[in-house]
Design goal:
Elements (H helix, E strand, L loop, with lengths): L2 H8 L3 E5 L4 H8 L5 E3 L2 H10 L1 H14 L5 H26 L6 E5 L8 H11 L6 E6 L2 H12 L4 E4 L4 H20 L10 E5 H14 L6 H4 L2 H16 L4 E5 L5 H4 L6 E5 L1 H8 L15 H7 L3 H7 L13 H29 L1
Parallel strand pairs: 1-8, 2-3, 3-4, 4-5, 5-6, 6-7, 7-8
């Protein structure tokens, strides 16, 4: 039996999602037990590049039928079309679980990361694309405000651009406020499924870049556990406080980002390439939910100020979220990726005009 299918069969509380809206990759994942998927402009760009022959006709028709549209208009329509196509694969699971699984995440425009109202408005637009949609937005100061309002409006959120325990707590508290407002007004919450991402690999990347830039010598292996340690700390807090948000592990860089969370009530959103590697591996599938990162590793990591900011409950205040190094690096990549998506579409528009 392939390892990811074995993971979810042995421990159904541990969900696997496909970290892409590629229909081909999602079908591979679903055939092996995956129950969700995600999109963002960078992912859509990659799907278009890898599967251009499948989508070029749709893109050309969209441009031809809407001659007054900008590349931004076309980009967002393509994001919706590609995401909607992938969502069909997940729809049976969505109905079987009454909305608890089988969702695909659409991401709000990264340009809105500092504007709560724009994120909420865009979330309301994106949630209408498919019945089994979920909405991603960055866990910035404005994002935390937006998550409460989105939740109140019945939107299942997926907090992204998130790397720290303090962000995870702020997200969960915002969701709790939104859910409580709905309950107070007699509005249903039974089909909602909020999640909070922690981008473990991107945190590891940030710490590696930080020690390199500061000429700090550390044992390289400990940095492979930094994101794992942060998620396990946040997970313990979530379980103790009984938050109604589920943690989600993203940005895979090593096998620990899978193995260390087997058995936890958690979501693992795994890129196709890592899925193939994991499925062909010989790792033993064992429950690691109650295992902690070794104390010696934590002690060494705690000598790094950037790790302390990520690991401690009060490591960052909400105003600092969007200034943390991993956040700035990731939001810039998302912004640049969106620009690259628009550039790709522009080449089709100019060709069609010519």
């Amino acid at each position: 039996m392939e390892k990811l299918l074995e993971t979810v069969l042995k421990y159904p509380q541990t969900e696997v999602w496909n970290d892409s809206c590629s229909v081909k990759e999602l079908q591979y994942a679903v055939d092996r037990g995956a129950v969700g998927a995600t999109t963002n402009p960078v992912i859509v760009l990659q799907v278009l590049k890898n599967e251009l022959s499948d989508w070029s006709g749709t893109l050309k028709r969209l441009i031809k039928d809407n001659p007054s549209w900008s590349e931004d208009d076309v980009a967002w329509e393509m994001i919706k079309i590609i995401g909607a196509k992938a969502s069909e694969i997940l729809l049976p699971r969505f109905h079987e679980t009454q909305g608890k699984q089988g969702r695909i995440s659409f991401q709000t425009n990264a340009k809105y990361y500092n504007n709560a109202q724009k994120m909420v408005d865009h979330a309301c637009e994106l949630t209408k694309v498919v019945i089994n949609g979920q909405v991603k937005a960055p866990a910035s100061m404005a994002g935390i405000e937006a998550f409460e309002e989105m939740t109140y409006r019945g939107i299942s959120i997926n907090a992204t651009v998130s790397f720290t325990v303090s962000q995870a707590i702020a997200v969960a508290e915002a969701v709790e406020r939104g859910l409580d407002r709905r309950i107070k007004e007699g509005l249903p919450i039974d089909m909602m499924n909020p999640v909070c991402t922690i981008m473990v690999g991107r945190l590891d990347d940030h710490l590696k870049n930080d020690v390199k830039s500061k000429n700090i010598l550390v044992e390289p292996d400990i940095l492979e556990y930094a994101g794992v340690a942060v998620v396990k700390k946040a997970y313990s807090i979530y379980q103790t406080r009984k938050y109604r948000t589920t943690l989600l592990v993203a940005a895979f860089r090593n096998p620990y980002h899978w193995l260390e969370f087997i058995g936890s009530k958690i979501v693992l959103t795994i890129p196709y390439g890592w899925q193939v590697k994991f499925n062909s591996s010989e790792y033993e599938i064992t429950n690691k939910a109650d295992d902690s990162v070794h104390g010696t590793i934590i002690q060494k990591l705690m000598k790094l100020p950037e790790f302390i900011k990520a690991y401690e409950e009060d490591g960052l205040n909400v105003e600092e979220f969007e200034h943390y190094g991993a956040f700035t690096a990731t939001i810039n990549q998302f912004l640049n990726g969106y620009d690259d998506l628009c550039k790709l579409i522009r080449t089709f528009m100019v060709t069609e005009i010519s």
